[in-house]
From TrEMBL:
The family this protein is said to belong to: Belongs to the ABC-4 integral membrane protein family. LolC/E subfamily.
Source organism per UniProt: Spirosoma utsteinense
Predominant place of localization: membrane
Protein name in the entry: Lipoprotein-releasing system permease protein
Transmembrane segments: 20-46, 284-309, 339-358, 379-403
Pfam family, one: MacB_PCD
């Protein structure tokens, strides 16, 4: 039998009287429990926000993107495109020409992000779930169509029923003096709006158009692009595919006979690394703040154990007279502190996980925003967060219980002398 644990349990579950010390122990347990529950819930919400952003990016951005290290465009030769398509794991390759432009519709105008894509872009089926009106169409019977974001539709009051009013895209000509009075200052292309999509506010100024239209508007050469977007086959290791693609573009751009612009291969997470870093830093500071709250709540353990040492001073002397050592007495009060803290921590962990799972399943706490992509706050419970919370509570318990336990051991040492 573990004597320190048995005596500590007797102290904790004693029903002889409910003294101030007992109520202080209960208050300590509740404080640790509430702090632990809050920490689990908040960390899970940050995890959910990170997963939500990945889901949003996956709806519009490709798995892998190839861009120039310097400048905003480069020549994508047919040989390079062929090698990229032959790279293991590559499913689709999309050439992209993208830049800011001015959009006019009827009497309205606004600045948009024009993204010209080739014909296989729609095969990625990323926007299928984001389409809210019309259809995904870029070219048919020699007519160029556009798919616009809901923000562009709202700014220009675009009506998909009105097929006679075109969406006019204007872009400054290279080498011309910029002047709204100069009719030759802008290149223009007219498009018919085929559909409207909505993902999230950061994509609300996008207009998708055929690649040939964008190239003609920007003044690009036939093989010139701003980026190459690649979709990987399901189950492909993203890291290995990224490394293999980087080797392909390095060989293509460092060839002795035809050196080209240096290119960089980036995953979807690489393109949004600043956002993920900001979320993780904020998560860290919130975790530290709640950790301090748990520490403050655990100070009650220090006071309750200190008062318990005073109350049980005669019991300690009796234990020592029966042969107990200072180490055994210390372990009794350390175990008492552990019972108080871990009871609250386990209860808080269980409640926190249950609340997060219920939110994940039923979404009873709503975002309260009409334009949000999700109705309820996203949460995701990770085992690493549960482990981190448990370790934090154990460390706090040892810190707050050590000094009262050491004081009890000194009582036994004084009795011995």
């Amino acid at each position: 039998m573990n004597l320190p644990a048995w005596i500590a349990r007797r102290y904790f579950f004693s029903k002889k009287k409910r003294s101030f010390i007992s109520w202080l122990s209960i208050l300590s347990m509740l404080g640790v429990g509430v702090g632990t529950m809050a920490l689990v819930i908040v960390l899970s919400v940050f995890n959910g926000m990170e997963d939500l952003n990945r889901q949003i990016f996956k709806t519009f951005e490709s798995d892998i993107t190839i861009t120039p290290k310097e400048g905003k465009r480069f020549m994508a030769s047919p040989q390079l495109l062929a090698r990229l398509r032959q790279t293991p794991g590559v499913l689709l390759l999309t050439a992209v020409a993208q830049d800011n432009a001015l959009a006019k519709y009827a009497n309205g105008q606004t600045v948009v992000r024009l993204k010209g894509v080739d014909d296989n872009y729609l095969q990625r089926q990323q926007l299928d779930s984001a389409l809210i009106e019309g259809k995904l169409l870029l070219r048919r019977d020699g007519i160029n169509f556009a798919v616009v974001a809901d923000g562009v539709r709202s700014d220009l009051s675009i009506s998909l029923i009105d097929i006679l009013t075109p969406l006019e895209i204007l872009y400054p000509r290279s080498g011309q003096s910029f002047s709204v009075l100069n009719p030759d200052a802008f290149s223009s292309e007219s498009l018919t709006v085929a559909g409207v999509f909505f993902i999230e506010s950061r994509y609300d100024n996008f207009v998708l158009a055929p690649l040939a239209t964008a190239r003609a508007l920007f003044g690009y050469q036939p093989n010139e692009v701003t980026s190459l977007e690649l979709q990987l086959r399901p189950g492909t290791d993203e890291g290995q595919a990224r490394q293999a693609l980087q080797e392909v573009v390095d060989k293509a751009t460092t060839a002795a006979d035809r050196p080209g612009t240096a290119l960089i291969v980036q995953s979807r997470d690489d393109l949004n690394v600043d956002l993920y870093r900001a979320i993780r830093v904020e998560k860290l500071f919130v975790a530290l703040t709640l950790g301090f709250i748990i520490l403050i709540a655990s100070i009650n353990i220090f006071f309750s154990l200190s008062m318990l040492v005073i109350e049980k001073k005669e019991d300690i002397k009796i234990l020592f007279a029966m042969g107990a050592t200072a180490g055994l007495v210390r372990r009794i009060f350390l175990t008492e502190g552990a019972i108080i803290a871990l009871t609250g921590a386990v209860t808080g962990l269980v409640l926190g996980v249950v609340i997060c799972l219920a939110q994940e399943e039923y979404g009873f706490i709503r975002m309260g925003m009409v334009s949000s992509i999700v109705d309820a706050y996203p949460v995701r419970v990770y085992g690493s967060d549960i482990l981190l919370t448990g370790v934090l509570v154990i460390v706090v318990t040892i810190v707050t219980s050590w000094f009262p336990a050491q004081r009890a051991a000194r009582v036994a040492s004084v009795s011995n002398s």
